[in-house]
Specification:
Blueprint: H1 3-8, H2 19-26, E1 31-32, E2 34-38, E3 45-49, E4 52-56, E5 61-67, H3 72-79, E6 81-86, H4 92-99, E7 111-113, E8 119-121, E9 126-138, E10 141-152, E11 161-164, E12 167-170, E13 173-174, E14 177-178
Antiparallel strand pairs: 1-11, 2-3, 2-6, 4-5, 5-10, 6-9, 7-8, 9-10, 11-12, 13-14
Length: 191
């Protein structure tokens, strides 16, 4: 298109995206639920996070997004690493527990420390202990990238906890395939 034609073409004005509308729409994207934990020198602090993803297998990199006002910011910088704890479907109360701003969130919660001294939930579905390799500012959050240095699957075979449309609940799977809650798994086909 020529410059003259572009000047005659009217560009529609865009309306700003409301944060709550964006949150509602993004809530329709199903995610797993994690607790990201950190803490230097035997301290343990954590927060519930669903903005987690694998980035690279070689090197083994993952990322999560952390609100700039999170209580974990200073501890994360001090410790130089973090643990991503994948929650099982039975750990919905734990997800809510860590979502609240509690200075003693690990009190009474079974946990252990990784080889690098990072706190990990002992009854998590799985965990990844990571060394922080980069932090990128992104709006009101930071994107935290870590290299996986240790992993474990303490509760192998459990259903994961998922977040969808503002609700937490277990993912119900049958015969290795995803199914809706209350529906029997699809029958196996003869080959």
């Amino acid at each position: 298109m020529s410059a003259a034609a572009r000047s005659l073409t009217r560009t529609p004005e865009r309306q700003p995206i409301e944060p709550l509308s964006l949150r509602r729409v993004c809530g329709l994207f199903t995610t797993g639920v994690t607790v990201v934990s950190t803490g230097p020198n035997g301290r343990a602090e954590g927060t519930t996070v669903n903005s987690f993803t694998s980035v690279s297998l070689d090197p083994p990199l993952v990322l999560f997004c952390l609100h700039k006002q999170s209580r974990l910011h200073d501890l994360l910088q001090e410790s130089g690493g973090f643990t991503v704890n994948f929650l099982s479907g039975q750990q919905q109360p734990l997800a809510r527990w860590f979502a609240e701003k509690r200075p003693d969130a690990f009190a009474g919660v079974p946990h252990h420390f990784t080889g690098d001294g990072l706190p990990a939930l002992s009854e998590a579905l799985a965990y990844l202990a990571c060394t922080t390799v980069d932090v990128h500012a992104a709006g009101d959050h930071d994107i935290v990238i870590g290299e996986v240095v240790e992993l474990g699957v303490p509760q192998h075979g459990q259903e994961p906890l998922i977040f969808f449309d503002g609700s937490l609940g277990p993912l119900e799977a049958g015969a290795g395939r995803f199914s809706r809650a209350g529906e029997p798994p699809a029958p196996a086909r003869a080959s």
